[in-house]
Amino acid sequence: MFNWFRRKINKTESEQVSEPTEQTQTPEVEPSEEKSDQDDYLNWAKTAYKNIQQRQTPSTSQPEETETASETTDNQVTEVEPETPQKSDSPVKEKTEGTPAWMQKSDRLEALKETAMEKATVEDTSPVTFDEEFVWSAKVLAAQGRAPDDVSQEEINWLKRLRQGLGKSRRGLVNQLKSIVGQGPLNEDAVMEIEALLLQADTGIEATDYIISTLQNKLLEEALPPEQALEYLKSILREILDRPLQKVVNPGFAPEKGVLNIWLLTGVNGAGKTTTIGKLAHLAQQSGYNCIIAAADTFRAAAVEQVKVWGERSNTPVIANPGKNTDPAAVVFDGISAAQARDADLLLVDTAGRLQNKKNLMAELAKIRRIIDKKAEKAQVESLLVLDATLGQNGLRQAQVFSEAANLSGVVLTKLDGTAKGGVALAVAQQLDLPIRFIGVGEGIEDLRPFSSYEFVEALLNE
User: What is the rounded CA–CA span in Å between residue 29 and residue 7?
Assistant: First the structure.
């Protein structure tokens, strides 16, 4: 079982990203250094590929299925248990017959999401292919200090999806930056070109100003070739993304064993909050954590039903109140009781996302916090904001409002595979001083993973 929350990544000395790891035993710097590095990475990738193939032969997914199924057998509290696939089709049909048209549309969208999730799951278990994307993924892992025999198929598949998801943001950006940065010390025209590129990528004014000033100071000291200048630009971006982690107690953001972890998820309607909860539940189950979902967004239409669907898909129990417009704090209370009865590791709470009245939002979140303090005083509580990356600077303003209303621990960036521009991640880190904890690059259940600044920057700026 691969634990995504505790990946073995050595991010120290991350500035030396162009050098392979010690295991590759690269020779001293020579005129043919670039070709030698490529050969070393290719050999590293071949070794990793052979190791993955050897592990695939005896592997089977049955133990994980039986393990997750056994976790959901107990029924200590009123809850919604995950249903079998045979039973999931008929209730949807019955519900759509007697509901308004707008509700039926929501159900059809959920059905599309379910099929997308099924496809993603099948792809993740298919044999890995040794192609150009595999070599790129292997190079990214090697540059972080990984050994060829310590690479999993899950990581390779994720890096492939990450690179594909950021493809729209990456196309054209690399060549334009290379042509500008590689001209030596920046002049006024070059600064304006880079500034325009970064702003078009939703980087934000503050982050853009910092990047340009830092890059210009470096290029005034020495004229760097295009490749080296681009590598230095990558180090600036990673420094911005990692800066909020310096003040955080839990940089890795992994659920602690032996104690109840409660993650509150907030965000405006449409940002992908409910979808993110389902993906986080699946990620936790796949990583060996016993997870429960509390459907506390009781005011938005069909929110509870959507959480139930994701609970079924991720094989995660959902605690919900059958009534309408019920008190969200009461659902959280029941969720904590269920988590304690089952000795669960992680409780995911879907909270309301309304910006129309910040006072009511703050009051609701404060009440939930009081319930947690009384019911589970030793729990590790985190508050995550789900942010739609396609909104750009508008989404950033929403994040500012939520950061004032809630004690946020970090951000989950979703929909980076659409029309989003990856620069919004830099804006979040620079302007809000919040660490990015997870990113989503698709609708599939496997398309959400913990955030790595190195992997993100490489996928964004690597050809």
Answer: 31
